[in-house]
Amino acid sequence: MCIFVNQIEYLIHKQNDFLFLQNFKLFISKFLPQICFTQNTIYCLTQAVYGIRLKWYAIDDQRVDVITVTNLNPLSETTYPIANPNFKIAKVSILSFSYCGAFEFELLVSSLSTTSVKVGIQTANSNLLHLGFQIILGTTEALTPFETKATTSQYTSGGLILKQIVSFFFYILNYNSVTLHHTDQNSSQPLQVLLFNIAWSSSVYAPNTISALQMKYILSYEFKPIQCDTLRISKYLDRKINEKTSKQINLVEENKIYITEGQDSIQVSDTIQTLNVIIYFKCYSNKKVHTVINKCNNCLKQQITLDRNCHGSMNIIYFYMRFTSQSDFKELAITTTTNGFSFDQKLRNYDVQTKNVLNIQMQDI
Question: Which pLDDT tens digit goes with each residue over 101-113?
């Protein structure tokens, strides 16, 4: 099966019903964005597959990500890089598997950092031949997990209250057999849903672990750039000027100083909401310092421009800036040139944008 789409970044592919016997294999190959986003191949080796129902969710927002692993080989704990440091929720979902006898395994997200996510697997024997899964990551607004439930008998959840305008789905995390059936619902209106699984027959039930997750359709929280709340400028005669370099920038809370030409990328912690920046230039005749600063995110005029001339006996000029931010991780690229410094911040909202928050350069008058 191949379905063509345009401008789809990510795909959550989920299996809604499993009704099959042994020697079953389901394989889902990696999708190709903007061309063909899913290909499914179902093999029935010796016995019939009674039915399988598939669903997928197409996503085009940088506040949600999906890592698809079509064939984990070897079957061991693996770490995957992530792009967005503000992902706080991670869930893993079984995508496909094959086996040759009785088996039991558990799949879980063992750790999540600003740069990577680690998925662990515990398997009791070698009968599990193939395993594919997806890791669904998102911000706290985008994804809301429900409590994980381990069941050893038929189970029906209480009413799960969904947020307004969400998609609801859940994942199987653990199998020790494949005689399992499960059902879910989704809606664009607030409602309660029941999550349940039933036995294959009156005498057979596969103990399993299930976890529900809801995804918000319309995301309103916007990651914004740092903004300069206060700026103080000082010019004076420094009698030890010869001991200083021609320019310097100091990021106080990050304990970073830049002097030489180059570029550095840093992540400012979500615990840091105030970033003090101290910059100085040596002053020379017929020179000025030209500065463009991101001053106010919510104002019609977001940036301010300042020029300060070098004159008289003043041989050094200092800029003391205090930037404030949201309680999120900030991705900053600091560029040092021959004449000054520049800050660019990467913002991951519906799409990825780069915002210049500071550009300060020594220029000719």
Answer: 777 777 889 999 9
